[in-house]
Amino acid sequence: MTGVVTGCGVLSAAGDSVTDLLAAVRAGSLVGTDVRGRFEEPLPAAEAPAIADFDVRRLLGRKGTSFLDRATALAMVACGRALADGELTVDDDNRRRVGVVLGTTTGSLKSTMDFSRDTLVQEKPYLVNPVLFPNTVMNCASGQAAIRYGLRGVNATLAGGPLGFLYALRYALNAIRRGYADALLVGGVEEYTPNTAWAADLTGDGPAGEAAAVYLLRRPDAAAAGTPRAEVLAVATGFHPDDPAEGLAGCARRALATAHVRAGDVWAVAGGDPDPDTLRGVVPAAVERLPVRPALGDCQAATGALALGALLGRYAEDPAPHGRPALITGRSRDGGVAVAVVRGWRRAGDHHG
Amino acid sequence: MNRVVVTGLGPVSGIGIGVDEFTAGLRSGRSAAAPIRSFDATGFPHRYAGEVPAFRPEAVLRRLRIADWGRSALFAAAAARLAVTDAGLPLPAADPGRTGAVIGTTSGESTVVEQLVAELVDGGYPAMSAEALRQAPAERLAYAVSAELGLAGESVTLATACSASNYAIGYAYDLLCSGEADVMVAGGADSVCRWAHAGFFRLGALTERQCRPFDRDRSGILTGEGGAALVLETLDHARARGARIYAEVLGYGVNCDAHHMVAPNEDSVAACMRLAQENAGVKPADVDYISTHGTGTPANDLCEARAIRAVFGDHVPPVSSIKSMLGHTMGAASGFGAIATTLAIRHGFLPPTINWANPDPELSWIDPVPNTARPATVRVAQNNGFAFGGNNAITIFGAIR
Predict the structure, then answer these.
(1) Is there a contact between B125 and A41 if contact means CB atoms under 8 Å apart?
(2) Closest approach of chain A CAs to the CA of B178, in angstroms?
């Protein structure tokens, strides 16, 4: 069984639509937002691929939002947009069958480090603010999104760094196949903070980016209510520290076999990695490549989610790839590899924008 | 659909490292509670935790370079190494791509993050060490297991807080059931850290020296740590290699409170029990024992006991909380619960709830197996796990038929 994507909610430095996202990915130059003045702490650069003008109170209201960290707030907004875009109304009849599955790296690193710092710098080590304690757990965003939208079904957070979204997508597909859920908000979220900015800078992974992208994934038979944008056919993962390129190729072959898709039919490869040789020898040489990192920086667990967004943008604008399969790839420094096989459609009305 | 069985156990805990020590610890009601050594607890009013001071990763691990990994990853990898050794699993696997790891955690590499915090307090953000930054991502808990054992299959870390091991066991069970893998190492790991100790203290949820679940005067959790791993494999795979089988994984359930980030929800917990039992194909009357979440806070134990009564009615089986012995090992907690449950089935005993002195009149239907392990025939057992974020996950194990 596959999962059908009927809605999406994207927040990125390039804008809040898959069209904006695609345009930036295609242009391939780093999207810069002025981040001076955003934090008291110094930053490694004046500009970064961070989301501009995100006002949590305007988007989510004042009630219950003052203690949310940025990653959680971004995820909540993206989840709400994906639900609305997918036209899924959550009520007492279905809320136990609707859930949230998000990818992350460390949750909100800033929330955790600020909280931990208080144990060192306050007069007493226990003088932390207990209201902020839930922000230190990595499942904070998925838990808060469930509360806001009343989603009592499968709720999970996968820590996967650059593979976070692809792990979440595979976990969600399993939950749908096993009959545990009818609809899942699946996404990746990462915030831009001094912590992530310096971490990326100091490890040579920079510049740090920021994004939240969430998709409404439904059982195919339950999807009749919404017009599908795309279908997730298969996700395969593996661990190959000694030969990640061959590991990724093996992963792609397994995913394609599971999806019953011939490698020669793949028209696009999207992902973080700008390496033009990724999966060379597996997919056709003329395949279209959509790497998100050159434009949007290191968005860690949101990277794969942005790649899916860019693909949705392509399916929407161009009738040529209609119904044809594309791959989303991911690779981590430690040897984790993952590949998703998706196919999308141009929907009636997509040409309007 | 494949049947799934438990063939190896790897506990790295404050009451014992390795299955023999751990079993002896459960049977004798050993306590891990001791003054904190992991960090300088000066200034904290409560200074006890359930640590694993005897943990020597170099004594267990064969492949990992210890300096490359954080404490939680080392707990996970050591637990996994002990579990595959206990299982007699031949490594490298004939098909490494069909063997994988799923590890749950609450705070990931918390001690690495706290090292970074100390560096930035001293010298600002640019003073953070690149090596510690590379060790901080939580995905490395599962990667440590895969690297230590040479596994090429799925390697995933589930960060669903204090029920994360049950999530991991459930997901591994699915991958085996559906034929995507032959063998999965599943469990969880976490390390004692300052921020969790401070956070639970400020929530009023931290006890001073003893964790006393289901006691009238229970006063909270003890923070704890460790690594818990189980080798799960398809029944066919286990039989083909002549493996010793501890128990069968019958099924699991997950749901979400969608109510409050910290406070548990009775209706949702009861709903999760029903989901798990339905998935496992068992009825409440079939369940001989419940390894509870049993944190020892007034709120959790009351909520959990009421949810149990709602599901089991007048036939509530004996329950116990091994957190009375281990402390709250966070993301590893339901992994230790799964190991204890498996041992209860295999050896025919119920682990006790230690430090129990006074019955709680509000929990009259609860038999917490007070203080002393009890011989019992356990055919089906339920292992509860709840978490911040309302992430409930319950696994169910049964005697092999």
Answers:
(1) yes
(2) 9
